[in-house]
Each structure stands twice: as C-alpha cells, then as structure tokens.
Amino acid sequence: MQQNKNWIIGIVIVILLIIVIVGVSSRKNTSENKYFTVGAVLPLTGPAALWGETVKNGMELALEQKAGMRILYEDSKSTAADGISAYNLLQNKGVDLSVSETSLVAVPLSKIALERKLPLLVSLVATEHSKIVNDYTTRYYTDPTNYAIPAFNDPLSPVIKAKKIALLHRNDELGVSVKDRIVELSATNKKEIVLQESFTPNEKDYRTVLTKVKNSGADVFIFVVANPVEAVGIVKTAKELNINIPMIESSAVFADLDTRKQAGDISFYSTSYDFSLPGKAEDFKTKYLEKFGKAPNFGSAFGYDIVNLIDICKNKKEAVRECLSGVNQIDGVAGTAKQTAPGDFVVSMHLEKVN
Questions:
Q1: In sequence order, what E strands does 66-178 have?
Q2: Domain harbouring 139, CATH code
Q3: Are residues 126 and 153 both part of a single domain?
C-alpha cells in the first residue's frame, strides 16, 4: 500500500514539474515574440569597420526610444563570404527583418533575400538601383547619380570650368556604378575624360596610377573610393607626387570628419550630406556625443534613420516590404529621403571644400 502511495506521489511530482517547465517555456516564448527582431549584418571589423561602428551606434541611439524592437548584430568582416555567413546565422535566430550595409556585402544579400522571399533593408549602398533593390530589398541611402552629380552642378565645383578630367575608381559594384554616372555627366557637360583607371578594393599603393593622373594633362581629378584607407591613401600619394590639380572625392568617404583629419592640410573636395551642414540635426548630434563621447558622422545618421523607418512599419498588418513602399518621404537626421522608385529611398548630396 505504501509503495502504491509513493508511486502516485512520484507521478504527481513529475506532472507538476512538466507543468512548471511548460509554463516557463511559454512565458519565455511570449516574451521573445513580443519583440520585432532586426538582424543587422555590419562590418564591425575589417577596412570598412568605421561604417559598421557608426551605423550600429546610430541604431542603438534610436533603439533607446523604441518599444517592442530589438537588434541582433553579426560581423560581415567587410567581405561578401563572411556577410553571407552572418546573414544565415541571423536567419537561424528567426529575425523579422535583416539590415546590411556596403555594396560588397549588400548586393549578394539582396539576391539571397529575393530567392528566400525575406525582407532586407540596406544602407550605405550606392550601386545601381537594379542591382540592389528588388521585391524584398529596400534601400535607404543614395544612388550613383547623387554621388556623381555634385561634382558637375554644385557652384563650388572646379569641374564647371574644367575641360579635361582624370577619373580613378574602385573596381567593384560601387566604383563602377559611380564611374558610369561620371562618364555620362562628362559627356552631357562636354568634358573630356583624358584618363580612366581603376584600382583593386583596399589597394594600398597608388603611386603608379597617380603618376598617370599627373601626366594626363587633366584640369581636375575625380576619384571614387569606399573606405578611409583608400581615400587617405590617394590624397596623400597625390601630394607626394605634387599633383596640383583640384581633387574631388565623389563617394562621400571624406564626409566623415575624422577621416578628413587623417588627410592633414591637403586640399580637396568631397561630396557630403546635408547632415554635415551647421545647424542640421543638432539634437541628434548632441545626444550622440553624450552617449559615445565623439561626434557622429553620416553613417550614424543613417543608422538612426533606418531604425525610425523600421519602427513605422513593424506593427503594420501588411508585410514590412509593402509598408516601406508606402512611405513617400522621410525627414531624417541624415537629410530628407525621398522614395524615387519603389523600394529606393534617396538622400541628395552637395559638394564641400576641405582645407
């Protein structure tokens, strides 16, 4: 009799344990499901780490003001292969939306997003619309035209009076896309491109190609880069070679003030966003400085803006991609972004003289 009683007590204990475990698991799942989870594939290490860090900081600053959203980060290491691996890791965690940046990583991810029918939002990607935007990928940044056009129509630009252009570009999706626009604008504005050269991404020795620029007879030198190592390397080598014609960086890398400091007293021009103008986004700049101990750059601004954009759509009944397509304009801290084509938010740019 006592054995039967013990057996019954044992069964009751087991049942109670099962109920407790199921209850804890249910509460955990309910807690997790209340979040809209964003998976961010960013270059947290490697040559483009500056952009990964600043975009992440901007996202974190915006996240402080949001309820029901969380962000999981993985490092793309500034390579396509590592970016794809990071993307897959985040998908295995069940994210609701993925975010990525830089053309090198975002272009292949956009193809995967289309194949798997999963929403992707990209920034700091200026490649052709057709190569990045699709039924599942939305861009919030700018495009090759807006990278290239300030060199030709900004009143500050030395290209306006120039007749001959030397052109150097990074040999990847970004560089080729912007180069094509510069070639088109040169023809439209009756400028002759007397030298057109490319360089390998993350190149460190520009002496040979810049010697060609020096000997080209050009009135102005336009170059397209993707990170500070390339930008600073080109202007410093140009100074060493005594290249005395005006230089224009047509890809906004020198819009970052810390990168400009690395160039010392070298004089050049750079495309930039309205975010960099005095009096723009001052509240954001103050909050960023207080939190991170340094001034933000345009990457931080775009990180902040894309979280605000996601927040608009995270609780809508329709799919995130369809919701984003219904937003015509965002007045963000990076500047005013207009949806110039379905899924493509573009912020215009201007030219600035450095030193």
A1: 69-75, 97-101, 120-123, 137-141, 164-170
A2: 3.40.50.2300
A3: no
User: What would the pLDDT profile of 187-207 be if each residue is shown by its tens digit?
Assistant: 999 999 999 999 999 899 999
Average pLDDT of the chain to the nearest whole number: 90
pLDDT digits (tens, 9 = 90+) for 291-302: 999 999 999 999
pTM as predicted: 0.82
Does the residue 23 lie in any domain? no
Last residue of a domain, one of 274, 307, 332: 274
- Domain end position, chosen among 257, 274, 291: 274
Structure tokens of 304?
Answer: 């902040």
10-residue averages of pLDDT along the chain (355 residues)? 54 49 43 78 94 97 94 96 98 95 94 96 93 94 94 97 97 94 97 98 95 98 95 97 97 92 96 90 96 94 95 76 83 92 92 95
Residue numbers of the domain that contains 64: 36-143+278-349
User: Would you say residue 153 lies in a domain?
Assistant: yes
Exposure b/e, 163-174, CB count within 10 A at least 16 = b: ebbbbbbbebbb
Radius of gyration of the CA atoms of the chain, in A? 25
Q: Which two tokens stand for residue 131?
A: 């190569």
Q: Beginning with the edge strand found earlier in the chain, give each strand of the sheet holding 137-141 in spatial order.
A: 69-75, 36-42, 97-101, 120-123, 137-141, 344-347, 335-341, 329-332
CA–CA separation, 325 and 335 (whole Å):
19
The total of structural domains in the chain comes to 2
Q: Does 183 share its domain with 262?
A: yes
Residue 182 and residue 259 in one domain: yes
